[in-house]
Amino acid sequence: MIIRTAMAQINTTVGDLEGNKKIILSSIDSARSAGAGILLFPELTITGYPPEDLLLHTGFLRDNIRVLKEVEAYTTGSDTMVVVGFVDFSLEIYNAAAIIQNGEIKGVYRKMNLPNYSVFDERRYFTPGSRPLIIMSGSLKIGVNICEDIWVPAGPTNDQAIAGANLILNLSASPFTSTKNLTRMSLLQTRAMEYSCCMLYCNHVGGQDELVFDGRSTAIMPDGHRIVARSFEEDFLVIDIDTDQSTRYNLLEGKRKGYCKKAEVEEINVIIPQRKHQEFLPEETYRVSSEEDDLIDSLVLGLRDYTKKNGFKKVVLGLSGGMDSSLVAALAVKALGKENVIGVMMPSRITSDESKKDAVELAKNLGIETFEIPIESVFDSINGLMRPVFSDRTHDVTEENFQARIRGIILMGLSNKFGWLVLATGNKSEMATGYATLYGDMAGGLAILKDLYKTQIYRIAKRINEQTGTEIIPRNVFLKAPTAELREGQKDQDSLPPYEILDGILRLYIEESFSLDEIVSKGFDRETVEYVLRLLQRSEYKRKQGAPGIKVSKRAFGKDWRMPITNKYRD
Ligand SMILES: Nc1ncnc2c1ncn2[C@@H]1O[C@H](COP(=O)(O)OP(=O)(O)OC[C@H]2O[C@@H]([n+]3cccc(C(=O)O)c3)[C@H](O)[C@@H]2O)[C@@H](O)[C@H]1O
Ligand SMILES: Nc1ncnc2c1ncn2[C@@H]1O[C@H](COP(=O)(O)OP(=O)(O)OP(=O)(O)O)[C@@H](O)[C@H]1O
Ligand SMILES: NC(=O)CC[C@H](N)C(=O)O
């Protein structure tokens, strides 16, 4: 049996019910013109994902149902079966998929496995569904399920396959991490091959606060053949699926034989149009991108969507001539175009000529507008103002931080006056150790490097230069030692262990949850590990007040990291 299927990998926006509806309706038009019998959307299509506490407002829930009804009405006169995500609402709420055809909702599936780990919080809101769903179309059986349903062992896919499903439709909102593509792809391939099923997996794409969804929606056949949509951008895949391939593989390999018991499933009937010939079965299109390319693409999409979806056009940042601000500026230009990025040089008497030269060269290479606003007079003024109070106390970190805070005031002033979003430049190594000034260089709306260790930052910056084929980020920025330039001769490495060691320790503690002793057993010096973990533990208060970042790792500071501030436990 040949079915023409379409997957709409779309970039919806949380809470933009009308905007999302427009995208859904236009995808329905595309599916109709393509002659598709099935059109699949990502998880919670109507509300966007994750809607978080909007789900606690009945007005929002009702508006989502109203939009669903409008989508339902729009399908009148068409036999394309549309599978769209929405919030089902009847006293309790369910993360659900509506199966709609010709102006009628034929059935609703409620997600059974609600993820509640990492960045997911679905049990805070949703009640789990209780029954897998099968769509019957003559001898064709199609299972519908939602994202996490396919990740768990013995989930609904299992029951649907045992009940005879030869095609599985999964609506997904699976956020990017640097290792997710490999895990996800091998999972999907395993499911398709273990159940001898054809599978359509439609993932969301776009940035939503600290999350980035990378798309890569996938059609996968029982022989493991994969057709994958574009990453980090919208896409519309049309594929003719021969569902008999599932039947043949099942007979050949006998995987479902012996499962005579009928699984507990709900059945609905929908007539799905068939085709005579398989015209669209693209070549295998699965490709593995390099970690650096994926990271660049995810940061660019995360920054672009955060900026646009929050109503900003331009961004502003302090340009120090150091690596962090150089990389943020380069990524911002990739995301928004050079005309929408403004760099501000704010030298003090400590700022070296080398730093000034590097900042100017970077700005020139990127072609961005710059301002130079020296901070010396304000610094002198605040020192004068405080002299009677500080009396004979020696200069220390207080005065260092004044400089960072003056820069924060200037950037926020530019933001207020011109409506530019301030980009903070802090990285994960700094955020972990508290090596940043609260209300100073931590000021800003979005900290795009917040989930990248300093050692990764150098690799990504190198890759940006390779991609552009020029030294956009000047060579000297790579060569000189990192410095906060808040006191004469200061180097990061005066306060922190070398970044290779620091990042190694942090990664084991944050991403792998190792204990102090376990980290030491990996070959790190005990005193250094103790020092790093103390820094990490005592700077929690800073992270709680910092700008959101973009999650790209297994565990990011943000939704994924909920350490108490007041905490006496020491490893
Ligand atoms: N548990 C807690 N809960 C709430 N607040 C707490 C707190 N513990 C301290 N505090 C507050 O925090 C203050 C200390 O924090 P803060 O004022 O930020 O200052 P602090 O952490 O002492 O100093 C900032 C450090 O970051 C370095 N830095 C700054 C800027 C850029 C870079 C760079 O390379 O990128 C590095 C700088 O050289 C210095 O070593 C305390 O004076 C106190 O007011
Ligand atoms: N002279 C300066 N002019 C403008 N902004 C500055 C200046 N010094 C610091 N900043 C801002 O404060 C941020 C924090 O400084 P920091 O030294 O950590 O970053 P960096 O100089 O970009 O990188 P690195 O840490 O590799 O030297 C900078 O990224 C920049 O946005
Ligand atoms: N929305 C979901 O159910 C996502 C959970 C899933 N494990 C993922 O990251 O892909």
TrEMBL record:
Residues given in the record as L-glutamine binding sites: Y117, S174, K180
Residues given in the record as ATP binding sites: G318, L319, S320, G321, G322, M323, D324, S325, T425
A Pfam family it matches: CN_hydrolase
Domain CN hydrolase, residue spans: 3-243
EC numbers for this chain: 6.3.5.1
ATP-binding listed as a keyword: yes
The protein's annotated pathway: Cofactor biosynthesis; NAD(+) biosynthesis; NAD(+) from deamido-NAD(+) (L-Gln route): step 1/1
MF (Gene Ontology): ATP binding; glutaminase activity; NAD+ synthase (glutamine-hydrolyzing) activity; NAD+ synthase activity; nitrilase activity
Record-level GO BP terms: NAD+ biosynthetic process
Keywords, in A-Z order: ATP-binding, Ligase, NAD, Nucleotide-binding
Gene Ontology terms: cellular component: cytoplasm
Residues at the active site: E43 (proton acceptor), E43 (proton acceptor), K111 (for glutaminase activity), C147 (nucleophile)
Highest taxon in the source lineage: Bacteria
Chain positions recorded as deamido-NAD(+) binding sites: N401, E430, K542
Keyword set includes Ligase: yes
Catalytic activity: deamido-NAD(+) + L-glutamine + ATP + H2O = L-glutamate + AMP + diphosphate + NAD(+) + H(+)
Family assignment from sequence similarity: Belongs to the NAD synthetase family.
General function of this protein: Catalyzes the ATP-dependent amidation of deamido-NAD to form NAD. Uses L-glutamine as a nitrogen source.
Name the record gives this protein: Glutamine-dependent NAD(+) synthetase
Upper lineage: Bacteria, Thermotogati, Thermotogota, Thermotogae, Kosmotogales
